[in-house]
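#structure-requests
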Amino acid sequence: MRTLTPVLLLAFGASAGSLAQAQGCGSGGGVTVCLTATGTASNVQLGWTVSGTVTSLELYRDTDADPNGRTRIAVPASSARSYVDASANTGMSYWYWVKFTTKAGSYNSGSANATLGTACTPTAITPYINANGSWAQTASATIMTSASAILGPQPTSGGTWSWSGCGTAGASREQTVQPPAACTAIATYTNSCGAKTQQAFSIKVGTWTSTKFGGGGYVSGLVFHPTTANLLYARTDIGGAYRWNQPTSSWVPITDGLGFGGGEASFHGVESIAVDPTNDQRVYMAAGMYTSGGNGRLYISGNRGDQWTYVALPFPLGGNNPGRAIGERLMVDPNKPSTLFYATRTAGLWKSVDSGLTWAQVTSLSSAKLTQDQVNALGMNSAMGVETVVYDTGTRGSGSATQTIYAPIAPDYVQTAGLASNLYKSTNGGASWTPVTVPISGYHIPHMVRAADGMFYVVFTKETGPGAGGPARLYKFDGSNWTLLNSNDSAGYGGVSVSGTGATTRIALGVTNTWGSFPGQQIIRLSDDGRNWREIAAAMPHTPADGGFWGWPDDVEIDPLNRERVLHVSGGGVWETRNASSATPSWNEVVDGLEETAVLSLATPPAGAMYTVINSLGDVGLWVHTDLATKPTLSPRTEWSNSFAADMAWSDPQYMATIGVVLGNSTGYGMWSGDGGKTWAKFATYPTGVADNKGGEASIAITARSKAVWAPGNSVPSYTTDNGATWVATNLPAINTIFSRAYHLVADRKNPNKVYAYDSGGHWWGTPGKVYTSTDAGHTFTLSQSSVNAGLAPNYFGNTSLAVNPNAEGDLWLADGNAVYHSTDSGTTWTKLSNFASIFIGNPWADVQGASAIALGKAKAGAPYSAAVYVVGVSNGVWGVHRSDDGGATWTRFNDDAHQFGGIGVIAADQNVYGRIYVSGTGRGMLYSN
């Protein structure tokens, strides 16, 4: 018999009351048996492993390590692998052996030692949660919908973990949870002597919700998947992209998350979307707002836009340039979907053969690239370049690249590249191209579509759009011959879509730059292959009846699986009919979930006010929200206008005022309401500077009913004490107009005689920022020398912010674009916080602003500071909204990667609800946190 020397295994993380554990192994007859013994509060637990085949087992025990004199305590079955010794005496140490018998004889395991204890002390759990990118010692956290949190309690070793609730599973100490709703996770820790401890983790799920307005901006294109019902995408010029959700009849934003954060606002201008006809999960999106803004990106998704990866494109895009409804520029080969073509504005035609990862110019068409000078020379017409790509095929998924391809060319690129026609054709997959003789030259071809029988329907229009004027033509093309189907000399043609074949082909045609709804008007024309035309939108029933559906129907789509469903875009969203064959088709504005207003500023009233927030918007003016779940109705109704800013009297919040510009006649305005926004009137007079400065760099501060200080752009601010009957210039210094700017004005909420003015310097190469303080309600101001000494960075007006703590007099917060500064003595002294810093990448200007906006809201219960402070910026290298509850001593990220909204421009905080803020995304309307 051969016995191995026992190897003692010490228990990890044992508390003072935990007991010993040991292991011993022994071999014989080709079998190895290893025994472990663990003492608990009530018994000794034995366990063993067997390598080989045994015919019988016996268990022995003794009070010392000498096997002589040991006592047999059990004869378990040969298949047994554990035993509980409940007969041991408390406090006594025991040594145990397993005697095992094989065909060759009997042998012993090594000994294992354990002690039955009087108590096994449970081990305390210390809870930790990582909810927003950093760990905090806490057992509760709030995360946003679709965000995740990591639960990571301690101790980190010595025992075992088990979990339940919130989607937790397994025995890992760290658990990542992503619950759709509030939940509780229970962690159970079993220490080395068997004592169990439990810890509950409470996870609350907050949400980001779009405030209801509906549409509000230009949807420049709609893209159906050709074979999957109701799979539809919408692209917008400044507000990202959306996917249609049929069960809720609403749109889901798909460009709010990673890839669309701070410094990435330009990629909310979407120039083109393409779907893979053979894979309804795969979608591509080309993004870049202006050709002057550098090269664009190609976003790639394998789950319908829920998540994206992206690659840099070697050419610029113009999602918000003129001609933005021309489309689609990006196309996937339906037979070989790894092949993509892109029709660029400035660099000709490009091709990818690896699903968009790399690109090469199709020089067989042209190698010409427009220089920036050439683009600038085109003026407001911008550059149109190659306008779209059309595959001549009725098959999908053959594996061989489609050979016959058409490429419509804009007049500007025809001239630059020295081409012979506005339309080119390839019959070898793009290896070579030949010009196609067109029936009318020098026109744009905004849309060219192929019917199932191989017939093409081609729009020719003189201008680029959106809302292009005439003349315009629609032709049918069989590859050789052109047939005129429709013409218009006074209006333009935009979108065209077809369904069916031959004489049954249904054609829907958008007539652009025609305004109003009345008999005889043309907006959407419907035809049976061009033989008979009838108007199906103008003078037809629309819901809502006052919705502006005319003017810009530059993309029209017939549902490929339901020809009764026709949609068209407009300057304010999307319109749809589901009964196109009716003599009087009914139309609905399908904009639920699609929020594309451009928020220019936000203002929240004191707690208890009759409204929630004042929303100053581009294009549609100012609106006062009383119910965040419904479209607001309170507005001065300045129609097509920009509202730059608004404020209210803190002691009398029913009095409010807004300033802006009417876009139709480029006239500045200021209006006031004394009843919480129900009725409005223009100020009788305006300060100097209003008439000449129409940009959004402006601000207004209300100190009391009928008393305000107004800072027009590039002007000396003025004040009124008689509700705008007269205005008097303040003594603030004039500011230069090298780069448009204005003073940021804020009124102290505890002492309305104090007003603060902040000159941000205009641009990163401008003059350093300065702060001025008034103690006579904004009539005269004194420079804060400390703000000069602080070295406030010069920055653009829109990248800077000044805010007051409404609960403490003289408590100011300032974001100079790069950093955060705090003053508690009305600007006499300033302290720079070290938490925020811009991200610079090889340039003297910031690629991502370190601190661009500040707001103060209701304080957390029991917090040491009287307000919650929210900053949009970069903390510890991470961009987002960051919150402090202790006056700036510590900060936590407030949003998450899934909620970045193309960057956040302006922010306001609620005074009634802790943790509620209102923000603007890039073209995403106003959103608020729950």
